[in-house]
Structures are given as structure tokens and as C-alpha cells.
Amino acid sequence: MPHEYTDRILALDISGSCTGWALGLYGKLESYGKYIPKQSGSKGKKLAQFADWLTSLLEAKKPTIILIEKPYRGRNSNVLANLSKYIAVAELCAYLTLDLELEDSWFLDPRSIKKALKVQRGKDYDDNKKIMVNRINELFGLKLKYSKKKSKKLSDDDISDAIAVLVAFWDREE
Question: Is the pTM for the entire model greater than 0.90?
């Protein structure tokens, strides 16, 4: 179903290490950011902290559509299982906070996102991340950074991925 011009669209690039988000309003990028969980604690505690953060974001932004990048199927099964837990928490938070059921069409495939943004596949993981950050910066005049270092505090690739999900959705709906 096509989205309405008045829809508040929240795009999420979910992961256990850093979740990027972007809010689109009236066809424009309104705001964006990232959530970096505390490194210590049990898996259950981390999921609960993610749920608390996401609930606060949903209450503040009040999206009418929530987009999620589908996990890449080429990942190992442990990573895929962990991502699935976070995605399930996101679906639960959307329902409990906004009474919003996520539609199947709101889950976007990574390949369709790259295609919509007209980016070629890089030679490796780091190259792919850098390419997407540069493309989002080019499209929106942003100054997002990508660092090969593991610190998510220094790198904005999760934000650029969330913005890319939003752009791919808009592109698909036109």
C-alpha cells in the first residue's frame, strides 16, 4: 500500500552492536541518530535496554510506518538468530507503544536498497560501508563518517544504512 505524504516514516538498521535510525517526514529526512548499547550485561538485559531505548524513540517520533532492513541471509546462523531477536523486540515495541503492526512490505532487502541508491558492491565489508556513507553524504549534504576501527562511536555507517532504507522505500513508492 503506498504511503501517504503525511506519514512519519522511521527506518531502522538494527544490530546488537549499534542500531541506526532515520526519520522521514513529508518526503524529507527529518532526523537521524544511533543507539549504542552498553557492552556489559546478559543478552536478556541488552534486549530489555534496546526495548527501553526504542520505546522512548517511538514515543518521541510517533512514526506511522517503521521500516527495517532485513538481515543479510549470508551471515552465519548465530548472527542471524541474534538479529532476529532484536527485530522481534522492535515489532513488539511498535505494537505495545503505537498499536502498530509492521507490514511485510516494510522489511527491505539489502540488495534492493543498494540498487535504489545506485551503489555498486565494494570489494569487501569495509569498502561497502564506506561507499554507502559517501553516497548518503552526497545525497543529503551530510558529514557522516566511516572508520574501519571497531568503535561505533566513531563511525556513522549504521546511520547511513538507516537513511538508505528510507531512501529505498521512497524510491519504491514513487
Answer: yes
CA dist 37 and 143 (Å) reads: 23
Of the candidates 117, 150, 106, 100, the one whose C-alpha atom is nearest the C-alpha of residue 14 is 106
Segment 64-115, tens digit of pLDDT: 999 999 887 666 778 888 899 999 999 999 999 999 999 999 999 988 998 9
Q: Kindly list the distances between the CA atom of residue 73 and the CA atoms of 14, 45, 67, 83, 104, in Å, as whole numbers in the listed order.
A: 14, 26, 18, 11, 17
Tell me whether residue 48 is in a domain: yes
Total number of domains constituting the chain? 1
pLDDT tens column, 52-62: 999 999 999 99
CA distance 31 to 140: 12
Cell, residue 106? 516494510
CATH number at 30 reads 3.30.420.10
